[in-house]
Amino acid sequence: MASPSPAGSVRHRGAAAGSKKGPTAATLAVPADKELEKLVKINKAKAPASEWDYKLALVIITILAFATRFWGISHPNEVVFDEVHFGKFASYYLERTYFFDVHPPFGKLLFALMGWFVGYDGHFHFENIGDSYIANKVPYVAFRAMPALLGALTVPVVFDIMWESGYTLPACIVAAGLVLFDNAHIGQTRLILLDATLVFAMACSLLCYIRFYKLRHQPFGRKWWKWLLLTGFALSCVISTKYVGTFAFLTVGAAVAIDLWDLLDVNRRQGALSIVDFGKHFAARAVGLIIVPFLFYLFWFQVHFSILTKSGPGDDFMTPQFQETLSDNVMTSNAVTINYFDNIVLRHKETKTYLHSHPDKYPLRYDDGRVSSQGQQVTGYPFNDTNNHWEILPADGKVIADRIVRNHELVKLRHVVTDTILLSHDVASPYYPTNQEFSTVSLEDAAGSRHNDTLFEIRMEPTASCATTSSSSSATS
Question: Which of 91, 227, 293, 403 can pair with 212 through a Cys bridge, CB separation 3.0 to 4.6 Å?
């Protein structure tokens, strides 16, 4: 018969001793396990209830956000503050009329999209603060609904930011409540302004980055890529609404830089990443947070230029080459061919004055003591006059019938009334000592010693309309 094992003897002795001295560790293990199971069950029971508390609070806050943003949104029924700008831009989009603005196009495209949804044709241009929407039949409530919607959604996004960051329910409610009842935010999101779009996109970028950061221990998975790319898209919406959104890039960029630095920390629980793995992380973030936002930023401009195909108030801000691509542009629709020996008028783009001359001479001495050439006066004149007419002559003097004036050719300009040739020489002008004086000389002098001073280069960069007169061409310079 086998003798009892030592372990069995130990257990027997322990049990016997325990009967005299009290409960042993073995006897205590059973109630301890029961207590642990009880705590686990309580925790499991509490977790769903706690999550439901968060969800209930989120629903209530969202309802309040929509109520505060949409209540009485039709008042006032007049143009308010910067609605004169962004409402006008929406109308230009709907008319496909080219305009220029300092802000990127994304936020304004959203207003145009809303106008398109309700069938608005863009006939009202929001010229003055106080203009009536009702009298001009403008669907202003639909326009205001766009920022109100984004402003209302910003509140639950703030709540989610706090929730995802691990804060308690009261902290989440307080943070969302500060935005919910902020008068400035409510006021801005009830008008046709870009601020609602900007703030909403900024909040979304923070929320998406937090969700991405929480997946840092599961890199390169589907969810990891999803939240990384959504962060990049949200950032692109920020920078595509207003350039002040650059600060959102700096905020997220600082967090990304710290995260990348931590990946190289030797004290990290999983250990520092190898250079190859770190390069993969860096490249993924560069694609998701730099390249993707930049591509979306360019995409909105592509949409912008694809819509605005007609000539409009923004033409003068663009190059002549760009203006020629717009339909109905006066520069192309009224352009005429200019031949040598045509009579033309030249108009200054900024001052809107015509190149003008008359028989009067410059005074020999100006009030400041400077001396002039005492030649024939050449000035800018704001009105139509026969003294604005100049004949365009070939620099080489060769007379060829119907010879077209071409870009970068050298020409001479003859003042028709006084039969003299325009020149500029090394004499100070009457009002600006640093500028050269313009005057005229006789045909003989222009063909002789003053020939080089009378040559001017033609540069075909018209910026306004070209018209024709009864017997001569009229150009604008």
Answer: 227
